[in-house]
Amino acid sequence: MGPVSETGNTKEKVRDMIIEKRSEGVATVIMNDPEKRNAFSIPMRLALLDKFRELESDPEVRVIVFSGKGDNFCVGGDVTSMGHKPIGEALDRMRIVHDLVRLLAQSSKPKIAAVEGWAVGGGLALALLCDTIVASESARFKAGYGGIGMAPDVGILHTLPARVGRGRALQIFMYDETFDARQALDWGAIDSVVPKGTTLDKAQRLAAILAVKAPLPIALTRSVLSSGLDEVLMREREIQALMFSSEDHAEGKAAFFEKRPAKFTGS
């Protein structure tokens, strides 16, 4: 997986990043970094990749529920770890992310996201990689890439248009406005809205329904509907390697920390 996973501190963090529960064919995976609003950090990526690989190979698991601990699902990448990266390191990071994207989208087992609070950037993308998305009335969504001088990633250029259409997806990416759960439901970005604090219960009830259905038709249907993802990921890899070393990304990151409007130059 490359050098980003080598340090002892990172390995220690990875072990604590996931809470897992199992019941009658359903595995519930909970991102466990509420202090950072379950940011999609390097340790979180590694933890999710390890956990979903484990669950995919377990014949006792038929369905996976995916959520975040605390008040938020996931606020996207950890901005403190972003910045100018050597091309090799940037490609290593993307390799981990793309392995996770393929595992979520192309593996045999259906996945249900339970979204409370914010799902931003990579967090929104993670939810969209699931087959069913349950969101609370208080959930908020945002693409979030343009504000820090980055292009959309984590497969969202494939998954969001598949749900809401190319035109709507383009508006979400370009204008980068926050939208709530009701708007997301109207657009088809999510599948149901429930009272705050009940998303996990709803997701687990839906998972119990899927757990007794024939698994092969579900797996084959998911496989067909993920067609085209690999091509998008290849283009995403090229674009993100460029963006990580761009001046606009450095400016976007600086503006974020200095709490000021960014001044982008297109370089």
TrEMBL record:
GO MF entry, a single one: catalytic activity
Protein family: Belongs to the enoyl-CoA hydratase/isomerase family.
Segments crossing the lipid bilayer: none
Gene3D superfamilies with a match to the protein in the record: 2-enoyl-CoA Hydratase, Chain A, domain 1 (3.90.226.10), Lyase 2-enoyl-coa Hydratase, Chain A, domain 2 (1.10.12.10)
Protein name: Enoyl-CoA hydratase
InterPro entries: ClpP/crotonase-like_dom_sf, Enoyl-CoA_hydra/iso, Enoyl-CoA_hydra_C
Domain of life of the organism encoding this protein: Bacteria
Pfam families on file: ECH_1
PANTHER family noted in UniProt: EG:BACN32G11.4 PROTEIN, ENOYL-COA HYDRATASE
